[in-house]
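Fig. S4 source data, part A: sequence.
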Amino acid sequence: MRNSDMILSLDTVSLDDEGGAVVIIDQTKLPGEAALMRLQTPEQLFDAIKRLCVRGAPAIGVAAAFGLYLAAKKLDTSDFDEFRREVLKTGEYLRSARPTAVNLSWALSRMERRLCASCSADQAKAALLSESNDIFSEDIRVCRAIGEHSLTLLSPGDGILTHCNAGRLATIRYGTATSVMYLGHERGYGLRIFADETRPLLQGARLTAFELKSAGIDVTLICDGMAATVMKSGLINAVFVGCDRVAANGDAANKIGTLSVAIAAKRYGIPFYVCAPTSTLDLEIKTGSGIVIEERDAEEVTDMWYRGRMAPDGVKVFNPAFDVTDSDLITAIITEHGVARPPFDAALRGMIEKTRIERV
């Protein structure tokens, strides 16, 4: 099977319950090699999340949910209190893999609520399986709904700029920011996509450009530093990005470089849209200053993806994985429930309330 066929035919994350494994597409090897990884222990899952073999806030949440279920399934004890302690311990361990994306903690908290509402190990295992499957299915539905709402903001032939990968490889299917691109393609909109390469890990080049091209979508890859010039030239009608966490005031954390894109879009009067499932809304954090920003290894800047080292030995490196886009730079935040516009605090609370009602 060709690499392009594989990523369009397989879910980014899936559960092999009989084989006792979380199955993921190894994103560190794309686009050169399409390979599956089978993660059978919490340690293997932790490592895969840490090394970005599985990445993207929604996909990480789904993988963690499946992983917690499998860890619980393998426990053999008749003492339910001991069983619950071990499962909760595994949940805390998995939470620590990456700090910025709220979906990781959100998915594990959903699983733990089902665990704590159970009365026996067997009942808990069944509840955890059910909840993890619900999280998986909801992600597909949510991403498609975000795409439908996003499409109302565009016209046929529009040019879209996106940063990083908020695509099907970051979710189960469709993606968040790319869902509008897939739906627009299906409906003959003729959208023109410009994808930032997104340094230092090149998710835009390796993943977004790859998956969109594989789907037959008109995509042009540009260097990060070209974004403002492309906007100024009149090629861009809207910017769509994903996010890993949104604060109560609408500040949004996304892959490093997103803030620069938002500033340029503001300068040239281009709407800047953040695509955010309600699972990424963290209303406990008042502003983006409260979002913990993950810092990653210097080697990602100095060596990774190059044939040889590209920086002098011993040079200091600052490598935050994310930045926070201020809410006043964001035109709207698009969730599965609709388009939230400023003032974001009230609008986002309304989106959360819709989710709560939906689940009652």
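Fig. S4 source data, part B ends here. The longest helix spans residues 121-151.
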